[in-house]
Write the structure tokens for this entry.
Amino acid sequence: MIGAVDIGGTKIAVGMVNDNGQVLSRKETPTDTKSYANGLAAIASMLRETARTAGVEFTGIGIGSTGPVDPFSGKFGEVDFLPGWRGQNPGADLAHMFNVRVALENDADAAALAEAGWGAGKNKSRLIYVTVGTGIGGGIVFDGRLYRGVDGSHPELGHQVIDPSGPLCSCGYRGCWESLASGPAMVAWLEGNAPAEYPHRKHLTAKRICQLAQEDDTLARQAVEREAYYMGLGLANLVNLFAPDVIVLSGSVMKSAALFLDGIRRVICRGCRFVPFEKTEIALASLGEDTNLIGAARVWHDRFRRGDSNAS
């Protein structure tokens, strides 16, 4: 039984997850972005409470977290969304508090491990997980192992440049995949192209654009077609580079995946003829709303069941 912790910029979720990837109990609270001490205390309290609710004792803690984290030291880097947590070490602190081993990963890597082990990528050798929401991120799992870059770094899939004349991205480049195909990118494009009298400007979100497209709003349909095109370009790059067995799509924008999938597949078909693109499955994440908690538990299994030489 693993105590799973999902740390996000707006909420922290904690639950008990068994060896089959089932969440037996869960609890969440808003993230105190400025006070690490308050956040740590909340995590500890929720671990105890969810263990009591499930009637279990947990034997380890797995953490999936937003932002740059060091997976082996358990320490936070320069996490923009959590200014009070920078340089703190929840891995070491929770290990000390509960006397169990703790494993921490970036939340996208955690979700990739979950889908590879217990979800849409089960029994697949090469999986790429892509999440599309406020930003675009993901993780890569090959032969059951999480791919790490130099110094254990996390690959930034969303910052591949698709169009160097495109919108300015937060990373400093123009035309990154994230700046063209994330939820806010959909909103920015529609707002920039809508006439002054467009009736749906207020409270516009990617979700609302998808709803309007289903209602046959012309501009929203154009935004959806553009989203499918740019999502397809980014995914085509991944297919050409890695020729994976499966790409698993997740995130808030992909809750409307039915609007995009045909367009995405057309782009991949046009640009990936030198690899067997037809053998790469484009699948939707299968673990539901608890993907991040299940991923956090999978982090622990991946690290310690495999005896990772870098684990501490």
About this structure: Residues 218-242 form the longest helix (25 residues). The beta strands are 2-7, 11-17, 23-30, 60-65, 101-106, 126-132, 136-142, 145-146, 246-250, 281-284. The chain is about 35% helix and 20% strand.
